Amino acid sequence: MSRLTRRGVAFGLPMLALAGCGTGQPVPATSGTMRAPVLNPPRFGDSKPVSFAAPAPDGFAVHGIDMARFQSAVDWPAARAAGVSFAFIKATEGGDLRDPLFADHWRGAGRARVPRGAYHFYYFCTPPEVQARWFIRNVPRTRGMLPPVLDMEWNPFSPTCTKRPPGAEVRRQARIFLAALERHYGQRPIVYTTPEFYLQTDLGRLGEEFWLRATAENVNRVYPGQPWRFWQYTATGIVPGIEGATDLNAFNGSAAQWQAWLASRQV
Hints:
Helix 3 runs parallel beside helix 4. 25% of the residues lie in helices and 20% in strands. It has an 8-stranded mixed β-barrel with strand order 3-4-6-7-8-9-10-11, surrounded by 4 helices. It has 267 residues and is α/β, with parallel strands linked by helices.
């Protein structure tokens, strides 16, 4: 997800137990699994910990990561043993860019039996139909994969696209993209967003299943009244088996609710 700003939050110690892109060819489909994965207690840290008001991230039972080309080396079995219960992996951006490490991360997570999903970074200078086709071309429909993710946020550093459409237009384009992916994968995508984008576009009116970024305050305070499924709570996480800073995320529910969600939302 976004690496435009980073404000680490999470744990009070460096390690504590818890209750850009490139072009390329499509990734070949790989076999998936519908068996319920084993949940390992998270053993993550944070290089820039921040205290949260309750409920804090360590109050949630199920944690995972999201990643892109920035995480160049991953020991997936080690990450899974350390408590990575899911992974969202950047696949595409706009209508012609694919993350150069998507294939490696996708296969690695699959082989380690880490539930995995792919996300698309939306580009406001390309029609939603084109972006949906590009994602579908590059992300294999794999049995057991998590629902796809639409990442919608402003990118002030884009050298080619500075458009910031009004909220109604943003939501119109999002619905087109979401519907196309739902038809292909058989699951409604999740929508990821950031505080500024959410506020400026009134994105909550979509009524979708949300994955929300909140790295300075509790997610419920940043998005008051907004239901959410995943909370991205830091960009400076430390995960055994992964080199460098890693985005950490919590699932909104118990271990049993996680298993039920997987049963209903895996492709």
